[in-house]
Amino acid sequence: MTVEHQRNPDIRPSVIVISSHVVRGSVGNRAAVFALETLGFPVWAVPTVILPWHPGHSRATRIVPPPEDFASLMDDLCGAPWLGEVGAVLSGYLGDARQADDVARLVSAVRNANPQAIYMCDPVIGDTGGLYVPESVASAIGTKLIPIADIATPNVHELAWLAGAPMTDAASIMAAAETLGPARVLVTSAPAMMSGSTGNLLVSGRQSLMAEHRLIPDAPNGLGDLMAATLLARLLEGVAEEKALQMATGAVFEILARTARRGADELTLETDAQSLRTPMAMVNMRHVRSMADRKKT
């Protein structure tokens, strides 16, 4: 860490967020950066692709930085004199498979400068309809970034693709999460035990936790980006895993519910920033027995 950070503990660690940027909307970096900064963390934002809006709305021009330029920018960050300020790296949507090598190189540089730094990989590759990125991008994330991540945050469909097996029930989801590689795996959009609900399943070496809330249909995009960033912020604050999962899930659900009531087609983050700071939504928490624990009995 820098001398200034050692002298002033009130300065929080910076987070490097590497993902897509949209002009209109609250997805990718727009969601993650807002959440982290609202919760008090300085952010270095790296765009992997620039879009006018989420392509699910309508045709959207896609601007991907030339690979050589993107690599040069990441090289600059690797050599930044302030790299010791960085406490975490969060990567999401990639615009090109070659960007995975650059992300991995930056993660290595950050860890060299700050061995306590966390790398969270949000493998933004697909959803219910299958992959929505080229298979080369999905493979690069799966082979180059997931193995070096401290935390991975796939949705259940992304987990199935990464594991190479269908996620048919809670047992298969648990088994895939436990063997994916990272010490902590957050599976979003996991099947909940309560009827009419959805869940976030956090699997770690110490415990497996499920946070459930009411399912809201036709949700806007960006929930995964928001969840990853909010959970990361709480963990960086030193909040225990169970409380961090509860707070992050509650915040995202509360913002989603308020957005749905307004009939907005994008998450209304700017209106609901207080929900990030002090979520009030009810979240049902339960401990789930891991596959390893089941084998012991």
Description of the molecule:
- The chain is of the alpha/beta class.
- 40% of the residues lie in helices and 21% in strands.
- Helix 2 runs parallel beside helix 8, helix 3 runs parallel beside helix 4 and helix 4 packs parallel to helix 5.
- The strands form 2 sheets. The protein has a 9-stranded mixed β-sheet, with helices on both faces. It has a two-stranded antiparallel sheet with strand order 5-6.
- The protein has a single domain, classed as Ribokinase (UDP-N-acetylmuramoyl-L-alanine:D-glutamate ligase).
- A hairpin with a 2-residue loop joins strand 5 and strand 6.
- The chain has 11 helices and 11 strands.
- The N and C termini lie far apart (45 Å).
Key words describing this protein structure:
297 residues, alpha/beta, UDP-N-acetylmuramoyl-L-alanine:D-glutamate ligase, 9-stranded mixed β-sheet, two-stranded antiparallel ribbon, 11 helices, 11 strands, globular, disordered N terminus
